[in-house]
Amino acid sequence: MDDGSKVRVLRASGLAIWVRLQSLVIFAAVGVAAAAVHLAVVWALVSQWSMAALLANPAGFFVAFWVSFFGHRHGSFKADDPHPIRRALPRFALVAVIGFVVNELLYAALLAWTPLPYTVALFIVIAIVAVATYLSSRFWAFAVQPKQ
Question: Which keywords fit this entry according to its UniProt record (predicted)?
Fold first, then answer.
């Protein structure tokens, strides 16, 4: 391989790393935005409408789901051709609901069976669910279908 070829390979691999890093940063930003929306909806329903927190939480999740779905569809996992909603929406909904259930179950388990402070347990749970959600979304929910 000549020097020009080596430079092209290095530039291409550097660009691939940059694109992947950019995707992770956008994924984190969308996640933070969705979490803020979730929290705001729950806060509003509980403090302004006197709704029970456990009833407000699914409403917050539902509103935040749309922020997350469209943010990931058009940002984190953006493709040259937009992901077909008929395919991506049910897949991402399944990823999100499973993530929500795993979050609750794992958090409850860590609180019940470990001496971890609730904040540490929550951080661990959020990290695990975020990684699983990223991988599931990237390689399944928003996977780019090969051209036929």
Answer: Membrane, Transmembrane, Transmembrane helix
Cα–Cα distance measured from residue 48 to residue 27, given in angstroms and rounded to the nearest whole number: 31
Residue type, 82: P
pLDDT tens digits for 112-139? Answer: 999 998 888 888 988 999 999 999 999 9
Number of Cα atoms under 13 Å in the Cβ half of residue 14: 6
Q: Which two tokens stand for residue 59?
A: 């409403």
Write the DSSP assignment of 61-112 as a string of letters.
HHHHHHHHHHHIIIIIT--SSPPPHHHHHHHHHHHHHHHHHHHHHHHHHHHH
Residue 16 lies in a domain: yes
Kindly state the helix (H) or strand (E) to which residue 14 belongs, with its residue range.
Answer: helix 3-49
For residue 98, give its domain range.
3-141
Q: What is the pLDDT of residue 23?
A: 87
Query: Using CA atoms, how far apart are residues 118 and 105, in angstroms rounded to an integer?
Result: 14
- Whether residue 147 lies inside any domain: the answer is no
Closest residue by Cα to residue 89 from 142, 146, 138: 142
Residue 148 is assigned to a structural domain of this protein: no
